[in-house]
Design brief:
The complex is a heterodimer of chains A (about 150) and B (about 250). By secondary structure, chain A is mainly α. Chain A has six helices and no strands. Chain A has helices spanning about 1-20, 30-45, 55-75, 80-85, 95-105, 110-145. By secondary structure, chain B is mainly α. In chain B, helix 2 packs parallel to helix 3 (about 80-95), helix 6 runs antiparallel to helix 7 and helix 7 (about 170-190) packs antiparallel against helix 8 (about 195-205). The N and C termini of chain B lie far apart (about 70 Å). Classes of the chains: A mainly alpha (about 150), B mainly alpha (about 250). Chains A and B meet through helix 1, helix 4, helix 5 and helix 6 of A and helix 3, helix 5, helix 8, helix 9 and helix 10 of B. Chain B: It is a multi-pass membrane protein.
Chain lengths: ~150, ~250
Protein backbone atom coordinates (compact mmCIF):
# COMPACT_ATOMS: atom_id res chain seq x y z
CA UNK A 1 0.00 0.00 0.00
CA UNK A 2 2.69 2.43 1.02
CA UNK A 3 4.66 1.54 -2.11
CA UNK A 4 1.74 2.33 -4.43
CA UNK A 5 1.16 5.62 -2.67
CA UNK A 6 4.83 6.54 -3.04
CA UNK A 7 4.72 5.76 -6.76
CA UNK A 8 1.78 7.94 -7.67
CA UNK A 9 2.47 10.83 -5.31
CA UNK A 10 6.06 11.20 -6.50
CA UNK A 11 4.98 10.91 -10.14
CA UNK A 12 2.32 13.61 -9.84
CA UNK A 13 4.55 15.88 -7.74
CA UNK A 14 7.42 15.73 -10.27
CA UNK A 15 5.21 16.06 -13.34
CA UNK A 16 3.39 18.97 -11.67
CA UNK A 17 6.71 20.68 -11.04
CA UNK A 18 7.48 20.28 -14.72
CA UNK A 19 4.37 22.34 -15.45
CA UNK A 20 5.37 24.97 -12.88
CA UNK A 21 8.72 25.29 -14.69
CA UNK A 22 6.99 25.46 -18.10
CA UNK A 23 8.73 22.47 -19.64
CA UNK A 24 7.48 21.49 -23.14
CA UNK A 25 4.39 19.29 -23.10
CA UNK A 26 6.10 16.10 -24.23
CA UNK A 27 8.63 16.39 -21.39
CA UNK A 28 6.07 16.41 -18.57
CA UNK A 29 5.54 12.62 -18.36
CA UNK A 30 9.27 11.73 -18.68
CA UNK A 31 10.00 14.28 -15.94
CA UNK A 32 7.41 12.58 -13.75
CA UNK A 33 9.01 9.19 -14.38
CA UNK A 34 12.47 10.55 -13.47
CA UNK A 35 11.09 11.93 -10.21
CA UNK A 36 9.30 8.69 -9.42
CA UNK A 37 12.37 6.50 -9.94
CA UNK A 38 14.51 8.89 -7.89
CA UNK A 39 12.04 8.95 -5.03
CA UNK A 40 11.65 5.14 -4.99
CA UNK A 41 15.44 4.72 -4.77
CA UNK A 42 15.66 7.34 -2.04
CA UNK A 43 12.80 5.83 -0.06
CA UNK A 44 14.10 2.31 -0.57
CA UNK A 45 17.55 3.20 0.70
CA UNK A 46 16.66 5.57 3.53
CA UNK A 47 13.24 4.14 4.48
CA UNK A 48 14.31 1.89 7.39
CA UNK A 49 17.41 4.05 7.94
CA UNK A 50 19.58 1.35 6.36
CA UNK A 51 21.61 4.04 4.62
CA UNK A 52 22.51 7.59 5.44
CA UNK A 53 20.22 10.27 3.98
CA UNK A 54 23.12 11.90 2.15
CA UNK A 55 24.22 8.65 0.51
CA UNK A 56 20.64 7.79 -0.49
CA UNK A 57 20.20 11.26 -2.01
CA UNK A 58 23.45 11.06 -3.96
CA UNK A 59 22.54 7.65 -5.34
CA UNK A 60 19.00 8.71 -6.30
CA UNK A 61 20.15 11.92 -7.96
CA UNK A 62 22.80 10.01 -9.93
CA UNK A 63 20.12 7.69 -11.32
CA UNK A 64 17.76 10.60 -12.03
CA UNK A 65 20.52 12.41 -13.93
CA UNK A 66 21.39 9.26 -15.86
CA UNK A 67 17.77 8.76 -16.97
CA UNK A 68 17.54 12.47 -17.82
CA UNK A 69 20.58 12.15 -20.09
CA UNK A 70 18.93 9.27 -21.94
CA UNK A 71 15.67 11.20 -22.32
CA UNK A 72 17.64 14.24 -23.47
CA UNK A 73 19.21 12.08 -26.20
CA UNK A 74 15.86 10.67 -27.28
CA UNK A 75 13.95 13.96 -27.37
CA UNK A 76 16.91 16.17 -28.37
CA UNK A 77 16.35 18.61 -25.53
CA UNK A 78 18.67 19.97 -22.83
CA UNK A 79 19.20 17.64 -19.86
CA UNK A 80 17.94 20.25 -17.40
CA UNK A 81 14.38 19.91 -18.79
CA UNK A 82 14.12 16.40 -17.34
CA UNK A 83 16.49 16.52 -14.39
CA UNK A 84 14.85 19.61 -12.92
CA UNK A 85 11.53 17.84 -12.32
CA UNK A 86 13.32 14.61 -11.48
CA UNK A 87 15.37 15.92 -8.57
CA UNK A 88 12.52 17.93 -7.02
CA UNK A 89 11.38 15.16 -4.65
CA UNK A 90 14.97 14.84 -3.38
CA UNK A 91 15.43 18.54 -2.74
CA UNK A 92 15.56 19.14 1.01
CA UNK A 93 12.60 21.52 1.16
CA UNK A 94 11.42 19.88 4.36
CA UNK A 95 14.89 20.21 5.87
CA UNK A 96 15.09 23.88 4.94
CA UNK A 97 11.68 24.44 6.51
CA UNK A 98 12.59 22.60 9.72
CA UNK A 99 15.81 24.61 9.98
CA UNK A 100 13.90 27.85 9.67
CA UNK A 101 11.31 26.68 12.15
CA UNK A 102 13.95 25.85 14.79
CA UNK A 103 15.65 29.21 14.20
CA UNK A 104 12.37 31.01 14.77
CA UNK A 105 11.80 29.10 17.97
CA UNK A 106 15.27 30.10 19.19
CA UNK A 107 16.60 26.55 19.17
CA UNK A 108 19.89 27.43 17.48
CA UNK A 109 21.64 24.12 18.12
CA UNK A 110 18.94 22.10 16.40
CA UNK A 111 18.86 24.67 13.60
CA UNK A 112 22.59 24.36 12.94
CA UNK A 113 22.35 20.57 12.96
CA UNK A 114 19.42 20.52 10.54
CA UNK A 115 20.95 23.29 8.44
CA UNK A 116 24.23 21.41 7.98
CA UNK A 117 22.33 18.28 6.98
CA UNK A 118 20.25 20.25 4.48
CA UNK A 119 23.42 21.72 3.01
CA UNK A 120 25.04 18.29 2.72
CA UNK A 121 21.95 16.87 1.05
CA UNK A 122 21.90 19.62 -1.58
CA UNK A 123 25.60 18.97 -2.06
CA UNK A 124 24.81 15.28 -2.57
CA UNK A 125 22.22 16.12 -5.24
CA UNK A 126 24.74 18.28 -7.08
CA UNK A 127 27.36 15.53 -6.71
CA UNK A 128 25.03 12.96 -8.27
CA UNK A 129 24.18 15.30 -11.13
CA UNK A 130 27.80 16.20 -11.85
CA UNK A 131 28.96 12.58 -11.66
CA UNK A 132 26.28 11.44 -14.11
CA UNK A 133 27.00 14.49 -16.29
CA UNK A 134 30.64 13.38 -16.61
CA UNK A 135 30.23 9.61 -16.87
CA UNK A 136 27.15 9.18 -19.09
CA UNK A 137 28.43 11.23 -22.08
CA UNK A 138 31.69 9.24 -22.00
CA UNK A 139 29.78 5.94 -22.07
CA UNK A 140 27.47 7.12 -24.86
CA UNK A 141 30.42 8.38 -26.90
CA UNK A 142 32.42 5.15 -26.52
CA UNK A 143 29.39 3.11 -27.63
CA UNK A 144 29.12 5.20 -30.77
CA UNK A 145 32.76 4.61 -31.69
CA UNK A 146 32.43 0.85 -31.10
CA UNK A 147 29.61 0.70 -33.65
CA UNK B 1 27.34 33.59 -48.78
CA UNK B 2 27.26 37.27 -47.84
CA UNK B 3 29.65 38.38 -45.19
CA UNK B 4 28.14 38.62 -41.69
CA UNK B 5 28.46 41.95 -40.00
CA UNK B 6 29.97 41.65 -36.57
CA UNK B 7 27.27 43.85 -35.02
CA UNK B 8 24.57 41.47 -36.22
CA UNK B 9 26.41 38.40 -34.96
CA UNK B 10 26.80 40.16 -31.62
CA UNK B 11 23.10 40.94 -31.47
CA UNK B 12 22.03 37.38 -32.25
CA UNK B 13 24.48 35.86 -29.75
CA UNK B 14 23.46 38.21 -26.96
CA UNK B 15 19.73 37.86 -27.65
CA UNK B 16 20.00 34.06 -27.55
CA UNK B 17 22.06 34.21 -24.36
CA UNK B 18 19.70 36.65 -22.69
CA UNK B 19 16.61 34.58 -23.52
CA UNK B 20 18.21 31.43 -22.12
CA UNK B 21 19.54 33.03 -18.98
CA UNK B 22 16.30 34.87 -18.19
CA UNK B 23 14.35 31.64 -18.43
CA UNK B 24 16.40 29.39 -16.18
CA UNK B 25 19.19 27.83 -18.28
CA UNK B 26 22.42 26.92 -16.51
CA UNK B 27 25.40 29.23 -16.81
CA UNK B 28 27.57 26.78 -18.70
CA UNK B 29 24.83 26.10 -21.25
CA UNK B 30 24.47 29.80 -22.01
CA UNK B 31 28.23 30.18 -22.48
CA UNK B 32 28.31 27.09 -24.65
CA UNK B 33 25.45 28.23 -26.89
CA UNK B 34 26.92 31.70 -27.39
CA UNK B 35 30.36 30.30 -28.27
CA UNK B 36 28.86 27.85 -30.77
CA UNK B 37 26.73 30.54 -32.40
CA UNK B 38 29.76 32.79 -32.76
CA UNK B 39 31.80 29.96 -34.28
CA UNK B 40 29.06 29.11 -36.76
CA UNK B 41 28.96 32.72 -37.89
CA UNK B 42 32.68 32.71 -38.70
CA UNK B 43 34.11 34.52 -35.74
CA UNK B 44 37.79 33.98 -35.07
CA UNK B 45 37.41 33.97 -31.31
CA UNK B 46 34.69 34.49 -28.75
CA UNK B 47 35.18 35.22 -25.06
CA UNK B 48 32.03 35.10 -23.00
CA UNK B 49 31.45 35.64 -19.31
CA UNK B 50 28.01 34.86 -17.93
CA UNK B 51 26.73 35.65 -14.46
CA UNK B 52 23.08 35.53 -13.34
CA UNK B 53 22.83 39.32 -13.75
CA UNK B 54 24.93 40.10 -16.83
CA UNK B 55 26.46 38.68 -19.99
CA UNK B 56 29.77 40.04 -21.30
CA UNK B 57 30.70 38.98 -24.81
CA UNK B 58 33.82 39.81 -26.77
CA UNK B 59 34.10 38.82 -30.43
CA UNK B 60 37.03 38.88 -32.84
CA UNK B 61 36.35 38.87 -36.59
CA UNK B 62 38.54 36.79 -38.90
CA UNK B 63 41.46 38.78 -40.20
CA UNK B 64 40.95 41.65 -37.75
CA UNK B 65 43.01 42.53 -34.73
CA UNK B 66 40.53 44.54 -32.68
CA UNK B 67 37.89 42.89 -30.48
CA UNK B 68 34.32 44.05 -30.27
CA UNK B 69 32.84 43.86 -26.78
CA UNK B 70 29.34 44.34 -25.45
CA UNK B 71 27.54 43.79 -22.17
CA UNK B 72 23.90 42.99 -21.45
CA UNK B 73 22.23 43.37 -18.09
CA UNK B 74 19.73 40.73 -16.97
CA UNK B 75 17.20 42.25 -14.64
CA UNK B 76 14.44 39.71 -14.13
CA UNK B 77 14.78 35.96 -14.05
CA UNK B 78 12.15 33.25 -13.96
CA UNK B 79 11.85 29.61 -14.94
CA UNK B 80 10.32 29.05 -18.37
CA UNK B 81 12.20 26.05 -19.71
CA UNK B 82 10.08 25.96 -22.86
CA UNK B 83 11.98 29.02 -24.11
CA UNK B 84 15.33 27.37 -23.30
CA UNK B 85 14.34 24.43 -25.49
CA UNK B 86 13.32 26.73 -28.35
CA UNK B 87 16.60 28.67 -28.29
CA UNK B 88 18.53 25.41 -28.01
CA UNK B 89 16.76 24.03 -31.09
CA UNK B 90 17.54 27.22 -32.96
CA UNK B 91 21.25 27.04 -32.17
CA UNK B 92 21.24 23.41 -33.31
CA UNK B 93 19.59 24.50 -36.57
CA UNK B 94 22.22 27.18 -37.06
CA UNK B 95 24.94 24.53 -36.74
CA UNK B 96 23.32 21.86 -38.92
CA UNK B 97 21.44 23.80 -41.60
CA UNK B 98 23.58 26.96 -41.53
CA UNK B 99 20.61 29.22 -40.93
CA UNK B 100 21.20 32.77 -42.12
CA UNK B 101 21.79 35.51 -39.60
CA UNK B 102 18.63 37.34 -40.64
CA UNK B 103 16.39 34.29 -40.13
CA UNK B 104 18.01 33.50 -36.80
CA UNK B 105 17.37 37.03 -35.60
CA UNK B 106 13.73 36.87 -36.71
CA UNK B 107 13.24 33.50 -35.01
CA UNK B 108 14.74 34.76 -31.75
CA UNK B 109 12.49 37.83 -31.79
CA UNK B 110 9.53 35.47 -32.25
CA UNK B 111 10.68 33.30 -29.32
CA UNK B 112 11.01 36.40 -27.15
CA UNK B 113 7.27 37.13 -27.36
CA UNK B 114 5.93 33.56 -27.12
CA UNK B 115 3.62 33.23 -24.12
CA UNK B 116 4.34 30.78 -21.30
CA UNK B 117 3.80 27.14 -22.18
CA UNK B 118 0.91 26.75 -19.76
CA UNK B 119 -1.84 29.24 -18.84
CA UNK B 120 -1.97 30.49 -15.27
CA UNK B 121 -4.86 28.29 -14.20
CA UNK B 122 -3.02 25.14 -15.30
CA UNK B 123 -0.04 26.23 -13.22
CA UNK B 124 -2.23 26.79 -10.18
CA UNK B 125 -3.82 23.35 -10.63
CA UNK B 126 -0.31 21.89 -10.87
CA UNK B 127 0.68 23.71 -7.67
CA UNK B 128 -2.42 22.29 -5.93
CA UNK B 129 -1.54 18.72 -6.92
CA UNK B 130 2.15 19.20 -6.09
CA UNK B 131 1.32 20.53 -2.61
CA UNK B 132 -1.02 17.68 -1.75
CA UNK B 133 1.36 15.01 -3.01
CA UNK B 134 4.36 16.46 -1.18
CA UNK B 135 2.34 16.57 2.02
CA UNK B 136 1.78 12.82 1.64
CA UNK B 137 5.38 12.12 0.56
CA UNK B 138 6.81 13.77 3.66
CA UNK B 139 4.81 11.32 5.79
CA UNK B 140 1.70 13.38 6.25
CA UNK B 141 -1.57 11.44 6.36
CA UNK B 142 -4.72 11.74 4.28
CA UNK B 143 -6.26 14.26 6.67
CA UNK B 144 -3.50 16.67 5.72
CA UNK B 145 -4.04 16.26 1.98
CA UNK B 146 -6.98 18.65 1.61
CA UNK B 147 -5.61 21.57 3.68
CA UNK B 148 -2.22 21.21 1.94
CA UNK B 149 -3.82 21.47 -1.50
CA UNK B 150 -5.87 24.51 -0.52
CA UNK B 151 -2.96 26.30 1.15
CA UNK B 152 -0.59 25.42 -1.71
CA UNK B 153 -3.02 26.52 -4.41
CA UNK B 154 -3.90 29.80 -2.74
CA UNK B 155 -0.24 30.47 -1.92
CA UNK B 156 0.99 29.89 -5.44
CA UNK B 157 -1.86 31.84 -7.05
CA UNK B 158 -1.10 34.72 -4.72
CA UNK B 159 2.59 34.49 -5.58
CA UNK B 160 1.89 34.63 -9.34
CA UNK B 161 -0.60 37.45 -8.93
CA UNK B 162 1.49 39.64 -6.62
CA UNK B 163 4.62 39.10 -8.73
CA UNK B 164 2.99 41.23 -11.43
CA UNK B 165 2.55 44.21 -9.15
CA UNK B 166 5.41 43.94 -6.66
CA UNK B 167 8.79 44.27 -8.32
CA UNK B 168 10.67 42.91 -5.31
CA UNK B 169 10.38 39.14 -5.47
CA UNK B 170 11.15 38.82 -1.77
CA UNK B 171 7.83 40.39 -0.80
CA UNK B 172 5.64 38.27 -3.06
CA UNK B 173 7.29 35.16 -1.63
CA UNK B 174 6.85 36.45 1.89
CA UNK B 175 3.19 37.27 1.26
CA UNK B 176 2.50 33.84 -0.25
CA UNK B 177 4.25 32.07 2.62
CA UNK B 178 2.32 34.12 5.17
CA UNK B 179 -1.04 33.11 3.72
CA UNK B 180 0.07 29.47 3.46
CA UNK B 181 0.90 29.54 7.16
CA UNK B 182 -2.38 31.25 7.95
CA UNK B 183 -4.51 28.75 6.02
CA UNK B 184 -2.66 25.81 7.56
CA UNK B 185 -3.15 27.22 11.04
CA UNK B 186 -6.85 27.87 10.41
CA UNK B 187 -7.29 24.35 9.02
CA UNK B 188 -5.75 22.85 12.18
CA UNK B 189 -7.94 25.02 14.39
CA UNK B 190 -11.01 24.00 12.41
CA UNK B 191 -9.99 20.36 12.86
CA UNK B 192 -9.52 19.55 9.16
CA UNK B 193 -5.83 18.56 9.33
CA UNK B 194 -3.61 16.73 11.83
CA UNK B 195 -0.03 17.94 11.50
CA UNK B 196 0.69 21.63 10.94
CA UNK B 197 4.28 20.96 9.82
CA UNK B 198 3.33 18.50 7.08
CA UNK B 199 0.64 20.79 5.69
CA UNK B 200 3.02 23.75 5.58
CA UNK B 201 5.92 21.80 4.04
CA UNK B 202 3.67 20.42 1.32
CA UNK B 203 2.07 23.76 0.54
CA UNK B 204 5.37 25.65 0.52
CA UNK B 205 7.10 23.26 -1.91
CA UNK B 206 6.06 25.09 -5.13
CA UNK B 207 7.87 28.17 -3.77
CA UNK B 208 10.97 26.47 -2.37
CA UNK B 209 14.21 27.35 -4.22
CA UNK B 210 15.44 23.76 -4.38
CA UNK B 211 16.62 23.94 -7.96
CA UNK B 212 18.37 27.22 -7.30
CA UNK B 213 20.34 25.68 -4.42
CA UNK B 214 21.31 22.66 -6.49
CA UNK B 215 22.28 24.74 -9.53
CA UNK B 216 24.35 26.95 -7.24
CA UNK B 217 26.36 24.03 -5.86
CA UNK B 218 26.72 22.62 -9.35
CA UNK B 219 28.02 25.90 -10.77
CA UNK B 220 30.53 26.11 -7.93
CA UNK B 221 31.77 22.59 -8.68
CA UNK B 222 32.07 23.39 -12.39
CA UNK B 223 34.26 26.41 -11.63
CA UNK B 224 31.67 29.13 -12.32
CA UNK B 225 32.40 30.71 -8.97
CA UNK B 226 30.65 34.04 -9.43
CA UNK B 227 27.39 32.51 -10.67
CA UNK B 228 27.49 29.83 -8.02
CA UNK B 229 27.80 32.29 -5.19
CA UNK B 230 25.17 34.69 -6.53
CA UNK B 231 22.66 31.91 -7.19
CA UNK B 232 23.31 30.66 -3.67
CA UNK B 233 22.62 34.12 -2.30
CA UNK B 234 19.37 34.30 -4.28
CA UNK B 235 18.31 30.91 -2.95
CA UNK B 236 19.10 31.97 0.63
CA UNK B 237 17.02 35.10 0.16
CA UNK B 238 14.03 33.12 -1.09
CA UNK B 239 14.33 30.61 1.74
CA UNK B 240 14.54 33.50 4.16
CA UNK B 241 11.40 35.11 2.70
CA UNK B 242 9.44 31.87 3.01
CA UNK B 243 10.77 31.26 6.50
CA UNK B 244 9.86 34.76 7.63
CA UNK B 245 6.32 34.49 6.28
CA UNK B 246 5.71 31.17 8.03
CA UNK B 247 7.48 32.27 11.19
CA UNK B 248 5.26 35.32 11.41
CA UNK B 249 2.20 33.08 11.58
CA UNK B 250 3.70 30.56 13.99
CA UNK B 251 5.02 33.15 16.42
CA UNK B 252 2.14 35.63 16.42
CA UNK B 253 -0.92 33.38 16.21
Amino acid sequence: MHMIEAIWTSFIASAGFGILFNVPKKAVIPGGICGMVGWLIFEGMSGNSQFDLVLATAMASFVVAAISHLYARIHRMPVIIFSVSGIIPLVPGGGAYDTMRQLVENDYNAAIQLGSQTFLISGAIAFGLVLAGTIIPIILRSQRTVK
Amino acid sequence: MPKNKIEDVMEVCLLAGRLMLQNGAETYRVEDTITRLAQNYNMEAAQVFVTPTAIILSLLEKGKTKDYTKIVRILDRSTDLHVVVLVNDLSRKVANESLSLETAKKELKKIEVTPEAYPTWVQVVAAILVSGCFGLMFKGNWNDFLPATIAGGVGYALFLFSKRYISVRFFSELLAAFFIGLIAKLAITAGIGDQLDKIIIGAVMPLVPGVLITNAVRDLMAGHLVSGISLGAEAMLTAFAIGTGIAFVIVTL
